Amino acid sequence: MEPKRAGRPRRNASAAPPEPERGYHHGNLRRALLDAALALFAERGTFDFTFRELARAADVTHNAPYRHFHGKEDLLHALRAEGLARLAELEHEALLSAGHDPRARVAALGEAYVRFAVGEPAVFRLVLTYPIAEAGPEARGAESYALLERAIEEGRQKGVVRTDLSARELALAAWSLVHGIASLLVSGHVPAGPKRIKGYVALLSSVFFEGASAGAPAPRGYG
Fold it and tell me: 39, 75, 85, 109: most buried by Cβ count inside 10 Å?
């Protein structure tokens, strides 16, 4: 006679299923970590937090950040690259509606830059004021700066912008103007608002082209 096989142990119907480990089944762990890092930066003004603190803020296990980032520099590079990609996207959209006039295109890029700064101040401060060692082109704003330089070069080719200074030199001057007003707006030193932003950019664009237009006198003390 065949021996009777032992049946499977009955499962306790009242027992609750085990809870998954925090962070293990996170829907989008990388996104959660990036958002938590930005929130901590906005709160503290620095990136002096540890990965344990980041994990706690994202409500994941303490070693979860290392699944996506080798260390804090890697995390910061990712945040910068993502922020600059959003800035470049806004600037591309601005150029589409600006038409072909070089003055309008430069002004549109400036307004997109300022609106990005005001709309995402924590990202703006990270992207453009926080030093990061050995950042690649995608984390240094290469695309955004190239768009501005290209718009100015188009003006040079059309005879609207002076040619005794390079497009790169003129782009630096234009960037300095819009970065200045963007920083003042983000820090609260000047009042913000859509109409004010448009007005600030229009004024700065006028100032820029006063010196950058073809036939303008050479800047004294430069070069």
Answer: 109
pLDDT band at 141 (very low <50, low <70, confident <90, very high): low
pLDDT at 24: 46
In a shared domain, residues 97 and 179: yes
The pTM (predicted TM-score) of the whole model is 0.78
Three-class HEC string of the chain: CCCCCCCCCCCCCCCCCCCCCCCCCCCCHHHHHHHHHHHHHHHHCCCCCCHHHHHHHHCCCCCHHHHCCCCHHHHHHHHHHHHHHHHHHHHHHHHHCCCCCHHHHHHHHHHHHHHHHHHCHHHHHHHHHCCCCCCCHHHCCHHHHHHHHHHHHHHHHCCCECCCCCHHHHHHHHHHHHHHHHHHHHCCCCCCCHHHHHHHHHHHHHHHHHHHECCCCCCCCCC
177 in any annotated domain: yes
pLDDT tens profile 173-198: 999 999 999 999 999 999 989 999 99
